[in-house]
Amino acid sequence: MSALPESLAGTTVAVLGGTGPQGRGLARRFAAAGIPVVLGSRSAERAEDAARELPGEVRGLDNAGAAAAGDIVVVAVPWEGHGELLTALKGELAGKVVVDCVNPLGFDKQGAYALAVEEGSAAQQAQAILGDSTVVGAFHNVSAVKLEDPEVESVDTDVLVLGDVREATDLVQDLAGVIPGVRGVYGGRLRNAHQVEALTANLISVNRRYKAHAGVRITDI
């Protein structure tokens, strides 16, 4: 385990929806890097059970408790409950960096496709709801299968980080970088989150065709 960036020293990361594949996978990697993690779930009992299965300093609480306990809060809940959950947690999330990795996708016989979001994207919806928080979009395109698999030592992908506050996007780039093989790359303002969220539909298509767990690499930087 390498030393954490100074920006993350003494920082606790909460993961809302931490019992789902993406949330569990991110929690596993953050905890393995030495960051204290709080898993959030609708059921505190489910969160506690999931936390016991992960390495490092991980505990489980209900979503409200996790939101209150985290310095950085990652939102990894299903799109269907996204707006409702964030509205309920406005108080707990005030003043915090909230990392939204939710992809508004639909599925039919032809596969995955991006859904239209009134605010423009899940990340923009989060910022519209959480006026007292700083929302950053990130971790949209990372394979949950690779994150969750302890046999995968290096998760070879870049993470596009989107936001309107430089200090917050720098922080989340540092957070991405604690995962072996991952690099956080600034991807623009929050208004550009839609195409990054939508790209997940393309990656799902790639994965089905090639039986892979594809990621994204940005060249020439």
TrEMBL record:
**A Pfam family it matches:** F420_oxidored
Would the keyword Chloroplast turn up in this protein's UniProt record?
Answer: no
InterPro entries the UniProt entry points to = NAD(P)-bd_dom_sf, NpdG, P5C_Rdtase_cat_N, STEAP_metalloreductase
- List keywords of the entry alphabetically: Oxidoreductase
**For the Pyrroline-5-carboxylate reductase catalytic N-terminal domain, which residue ranges apply?**
12-104
Quote the NCBIfam families the UniProt record gives.
npdG
The entry's protein name is: NADPH-dependent F420 reductase
Species of origin reads Nocardioides aquiterrae
